[in-house]
Amino acid sequence: KDNGISIINIDDNYCEYYKVGNYVTYGFNDSNYKITNFKLNSLGSYFEIMDYKINTRLIGKYNIYNAACTVIVLDILKYSKDKIENVMSRLLPPPGRMDIIKYNTNTIIIDYAHTPDAMENVIKTVKEINHNKIYIVFGCTGSRDRIKRPVMMQLALNNSDYVFVTSDDLHEEEFENIVHDMLEHNTYNHYLVEKDRGKAIKLAMSKMINDDILLILGKGHEEVIIVGNNKIPFNDKKEVLKLIQEKVEIN
Fold first, then answer.
1. Checking phi first, is residue 21 left (phi over 0); if not, alpha (psi -120 to 50) or beta?
2. I need a labelling partner for 53 at 20 to 30 A (CA). Which of 3, 38, 73, 231 fits?
């Protein structure tokens, strides 16, 4: 629009392409709205942009870019500083996307990541949070994408203290076949195979002591596990909250 304003991420390799007409820039590099003092913690993120001090439940740099862009839109629309800071502090991630649950001093994060790239990004993000040990619960989908199974397993083993291999959507494939593929050429032994996803989550939670992180990956917001033609009710977050209510014994 003739009176519109483009909001351009200065950190993007293609930013110059978009610098036409009226625009402002933002990012971690020098820009109109520079992001500074970025910090991650077990509850979310903190950053400053112009004179705004933003606390958010969102974690990960990609979320900071999104949050910063939102602040800029609200700033351009002349909302007050107090209103902007307040609304940003109340934003929550979509269900099953870097969904944070506190468990004593520990942090449990549920995410939909079910590809090597997504898993790598999630792990890279949580490693920036101060932590003791990292545990991972995940499985691979049946009847598809066999080639990614050992890749994801190695990613998990290379970047955690212990891995709990469990069921994802099996579809028409046997669980044992999926695990066989996941462990192809594996030389590590810091893992355990537990087909029952609820039991795997409980085992992982029972190992947490202080300032540990547990990643539960693959299902995110989904409400069922698909086995053949059956849809078995199961939700990672509901299972975690149930176990917390039951006061899982911590080793």
1. left
2. 3
Residues 87, 158: Cα–Cα separation, whole Å:
38
> Do 236 and 220 form a contact (C-beta atoms < 8 A)?
yes
108-156 pLDDT, tens digit each: 999 999 999 999 999 998 998 889 999 999 999 999 889 999 999 999 9
- Measured CA to CA, the distance from residue 87 to residue 76 in angstroms comes to 16
Q: Give the H/E segment covering residue 5.
A: none
Question: What single string gives the DSSP state of each residue in 94-144?
Answer: PTTSSEEEEETTEEEEEE---SHHHHHHHHHHHTTS--S-EEEEE---TTS
pTM to 2 decimal places: 0.84
CA gyration radius, the chain = 21
